[in-house]
Amino acid sequence: MLITVTRTGGFAGGQRSVSLETECRSDGPELERLAELALSGEGPVGLDPVPDGFSYVVHVDSKLVNLQDPYLTDEQRQLIDAVLAADTA
User: Fold this and answer.
1) Which InterPro entries does the protein's record reference (predicted)?
2) Partner of 46 at 20 to 30 A CA spacing, among 16, 23, 25, 72?
């Protein structure tokens, strides 16, 4: 499963994008589980963005979901944190 997280916004207004393939990773099954749960429910719609907050586009294979801080489920936050952390490992 290919997972890509693109984060925009924040204080500096920058953009960061990280992709990872779960197939050969020891934590792959857990990331795939989180991805399925993260895609099952988009964040609340119609809520105003938080000043200096982050927005996310999460691509899982051919599916995508748009998310925004602080309106993330626990699974969405865990997935985003894990994918972004993989770029620094």
Assistant:
1) Emfourin
2) 16
Round to whole Å and give the CA distance between 4 and 30.
16
Gap between the Cα atoms of 12 and 82, Å rounded: 22
pLDDT value at position 45? 56
The pLDDT of residue 44 is 57
Distance CA 48, CA 30 (A): 31
Place of tokens 């993989």: 86
Which tokens sit at 34? 């989180």
- pTM for this entry: 0.86
Q: Is 8 helix (H, G, I), strand (E, B) or coil?
A: strand
User: Using alpha carbons only, how large is the chain's radius of gyration in Å?
Assistant: 13
Q: Determine the Cα–Cα distance for residues 33 and 12; give it in Å rounded to an integer.
A: 32
Type of residue at 30: E
